[in-house]
């Protein structure tokens, strides 16, 4: 089926996630969101979506049990293998839907890969802070961050895990980036950077539809 598809189209989607603490949400939050937004964006277009890469670069949260991080060199080598494999099979337009901020070293590295594969076109899409989606988040609540309400969807919540109702002050991110994992956990507490832990589902659905539409638009017309 993939072979037949490649005779008439060369697009595909590769979602990237990670496995890390997300306060009251699933350890797989970034993976679940990246894969789902990619799948919903592509489903009416017939473009294949590959399984999400579930591990990423997240050493900052290493003091939280359940967080699993890979070294940057390992991650870039894995991206190289995956993108090169897709290219070898005939995919020439690859949309990378990234769900984790820690994975952005791959975005800078991508230029090296493209220099070796001049016939390929790759879009790196950080879905959660892409222009249209981030505008929808900010219009809903300006205090939005890692492990806060902006990542709390029905499919990222844990059954039986209650969410605090307080509006957590935003952590000083510049200070947090200077600290080793144990001190990060001591300062951060439950893992939420700042803001409410949840907002009403009707608000979340509006943001989600914007994210799906923005991702679909890149698949349809974002190619150079």
TrEMBL record:
The lineage of its organism: Bacteria, Thermotogati, Deinococcota, Deinococci, Deinococcales. Signal peptide: none annotated. Belongs to the creatininase superfamily. GO terms for biological process: riboflavin biosynthetic process. Keywords: Hydrolase, Metal-binding, Zinc. Its cofactor is Zn(2+). InterPro entries: Creatininase-like_sf, Creatininase/forma_Hydrolase. This is Creatininase. One of its GO terms (molecular function) is hydrolase activity, acting on carbon-nitrogen (but not peptide) bonds, in linear amides.
